[in-house]
Amino acid sequence: MRKMGGLEPHDPLVEADYMLSKIMLWEGTRRFRAFIADNPPKSEAHLRRNMVAFLDKYARTDMIDIEQPIELAHWNEAYVQHLTDAYEADINVIEQMQGIDFIAP
């Protein structure tokens, strides 16, 4: 969000944990906010690791879409692997392009 908004790493985000609070139990949100206030993350990656840790314990299971296998005609494991390999190769090319700031999840 910072990158897309043209914000610096130190610029505050208003309600940055809004979406997190929608998929986490209230107790988890409260504890997460208290934890972050007491232990400010050193980086965005560190913050995300903290979010994942709290989601592991406090996620609202009714808000999480569990992956269901999808049956597609003519799509077998080998074809899916071929598509995955092609996608990853494309991503590698895009990441190396000049003038592109690739934002990974």
Quick tags:
105 residues, mainly alpha, 0% strand
Task: Describe, in short, the structure shown.
The protein has 105 residues and is mainly alpha-helical. It has five helices and no strands.
Structural features, described:
The chain has 105 residues and is mostly helical. The protein is 55% helix and 0% strand. It has helices spanning 2-5, 18-23, 26-38, 44-58, 77-96. It is flat and about 50 Å long.
Give the class from helix and strand content and strand pairing. Answer: mainly alpha
Helical segment tally?
A: 5
Low-confidence stretches: none
Give the beta-strand count: 0
Portion of residues within helices: 55-70%
Distance between the termini: 11 Å
Estimated radius of gyration: 18 Å
